[in-house]
Amino acid sequence: MPASNMSEQENKQEHQRMWLNNFVNRHKLGRITYSDEFQQQTWVSNVQLNGTTIGDGEAGNKDGARENAARQALKHLQSQQSN
After folding, report:
1. Residue 82 near residue 63 (C-beta atoms within 8 A)
2. Residue 83 and residue 78: Cα distance in Å, rounded?
3. Which of 13, 19, 67, 82 has the most CB atoms within 10 Å of its CB?
4. Is the whole model's pTM more than 0.70, yes or no?
5. Which contiguous run of DSSP H or E holds residue 4?
6. How far from chain centre, in Å, is Cα 1?
């Protein structure tokens, strides 16, 4: 689906790494890093904030796994901010 035809929600779901990076920068939380591993035909990615794992994800490709990890990390950070 071309980007111009994507709904805002679909676009947000495809750019979780960007949203996570923006959130971390806006709140001056530190440094985001990813670690990736290929396990039994599945990519597994972990996202760390200042060396602490805050999200993980799996997918059939590395980019998808990183997006899923970023989605989980962003939810985690947003829930901490609301407390």
Report:
1. no
2. 9
3. 67
4. yes
5. none
6. 21
